[in-house]
């Protein structure tokens, strides 16, 4: 790494990357170009340019990638109904490959020698960043301070002390050492008291959602239209992907929807406790399944659902740009061609309840499903159907006698 003269750093302005700007300059005597992706984190971007320059960066790219993030990453995962370990909608996991992709593009544009991220050697983000770097630019040099022998800031407290010594402005303190990652899909909370899986998260950590106890005492109803598995309108109003998700965040957050407290399995092998707020994504996930329930063939749905764990694992582990993901996404998107329709959702005190679904391509037939008298289904046909399906079990029972 002695020949590194220019580095593009994935920069958030948080504790880690704020310290890393100065560390890179001191360690490599190099130029540092900061890159901050605007993925809908709102006020967190305020003052970022001034902070990066004052900390030592030669320049900073701040780019609004929100629409691309929702359209090209969030919605494909929604079409797959992706959910990691049955709980996590992967707001952080989906953002990392986009950040890394744009980081590589800037490195090419700037003729940089290396790219850098601030993820630790214990977590998932290091894998997501670095696999994406190598998938898109196989020979790029990667600087990962937490895995570098010259990195001596091996705790949050040490980093806070370093920041204070170098007059680097930070928001994290030893009294409130939570690590947060925010974008338009979610915000995650880790560290501090949350490292005790028995401890209830303090109410003051939540940002996007009110507590269910404080949510309105009357329900809110919302209708979401889907075209080929993608949400396109809310209450009849056509919206762009990012605006639609933002709208859903406001509705869900005000009703206390989208909080998740889980212990998950990290790719590196350890378990980790995370508290997530994914308000709008929670509603869209439920609404999407509701429209699928009347538009997807049973066997197609079974096949697609069997892919959810693997798809989610690939996203979580950082393999967004892998060949297996390309193949899987194409298969999933084929299943979504008839997922067109509307879901009506009731939001009430933390609950997201499907109360209606309709589609011009609905496979649901009241003529067949009715409990009243019908003229299209001969119930006696079920006798032979049941006997044939029970045949192998009857044979086993006869042998056992």
Our count of helices gives: 12
Counting structural domains, the number is 2
CATH superfamily of the largest domain: Argininosuccinate synthetase, chain A, domain 2
Class based on secondary structure composition and strand pairing = alpha/beta
Largest sheet: 5 strands, parallel
| Span between termini | 74 Å
Instruction: From the alpha carbons, calculate the radius of gyration and give it in angstroms.
Output: 25 Å
General shape: elongated
List the helices and strands and how they pair.
Blueprint: E1 6-10, H1 15-28, E2 31-38, H2 48-55, E3 59-64, H3 66-79, H4 91-110, E4 114-116, H5 125-136, E5 141-143, H6 156-165, E6 179-182, E7 187-190, E8 220-227, E9 230-234, E10 237-238, H7 241-254, E11 259-265, E12 271-277, H8 279-295, H9 298-317, H10 323-335, E13 341-348, E14 351-358, H11 366-369, H12 381-400
Parallel strand pairs: 1-2, 1-4, 2-3, 4-5
Antiparallel strand pairs: 6-7, 7-12, 8-9, 8-13, 9-10, 11-12, 13-14
């Amino acid at each position: 790494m002695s020949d590194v003269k220019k580095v593009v750093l994935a920069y958030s302005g948080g504790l880690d990357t704020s310290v890393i700007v100065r560390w890179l300059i001191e360690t490599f005597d190099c130029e540092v170009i900061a890159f901050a992706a605007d993925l809908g984190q709102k006020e967190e971007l305020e003052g970022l340019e001034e902070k990066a320059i004052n900390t030592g960066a030669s320049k900073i790219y701040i780019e609004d990638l929100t629409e691309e993030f929702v359209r090209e990453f969030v919605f494909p995962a929604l079409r797959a109904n992706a959910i990691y370990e049955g709980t996590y909608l992967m707001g952080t996991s989906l953002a990392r490959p986009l950040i890394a992709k744009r980081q590589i593009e800037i490195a090419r544009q700037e003729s940089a020698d290396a790219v850098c991220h601030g993820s630790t050697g214990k977590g998932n983000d290091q894998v997501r960043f670095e696999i994406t770097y190598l998938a898109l630019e196989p020979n790029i040099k990667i600087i990962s301070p937490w895995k570098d022998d010259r990195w001596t800031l091996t705790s949050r407290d040490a980093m806070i002390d370093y920041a204070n010594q170098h007059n680097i402005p930070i928001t994290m303190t030893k009294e409130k050492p939570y690590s947060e990652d925010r974008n338009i899909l979610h915000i995650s909370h880790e560290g501090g008291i949350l490292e005790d899986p028995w401890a209830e998260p303090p109410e003051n950590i939540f940002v996007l959602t009110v507590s269910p106890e404080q949510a309105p005492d009357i329900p809110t109803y919302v209708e979401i239209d889907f075209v080929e598995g993608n949400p396109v309108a809310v209450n009849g109003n056509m919206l762009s992907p990012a605006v639609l998700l933002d709208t859903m965040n406001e509705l869900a957050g005000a009703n206390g929807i989208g909080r998740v407290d889980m212990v998950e399995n990290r790719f590196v092998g350890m378990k980790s406790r995370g508290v997530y707020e994914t308000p709008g994504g929670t509603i869209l996930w439920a609404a999407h399944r509701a429209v699928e329930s009347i538009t997807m063939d049973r066997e197609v749905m079974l096949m697609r659902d069997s892919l959810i764990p693997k798809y989610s694992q690939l996203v979580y582990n950082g393999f967004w740009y892998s060949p297996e993901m390309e193949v899987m996404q194409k298969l999933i998107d084929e299943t979504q061609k008839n997922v067109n329709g509307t879901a009506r959702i009731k939001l009430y005190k933390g609950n997201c309840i499907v109360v209606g679904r309709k589609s011009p391509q609905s496979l649901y037939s009241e003529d067949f499903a009715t409990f009243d008298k019908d003229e299209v289904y001969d119930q006696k046909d079920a006798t032979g159907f049941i006997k044939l399906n029970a045949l192998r079990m009857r044979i086993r029972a006869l042998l056992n006698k």
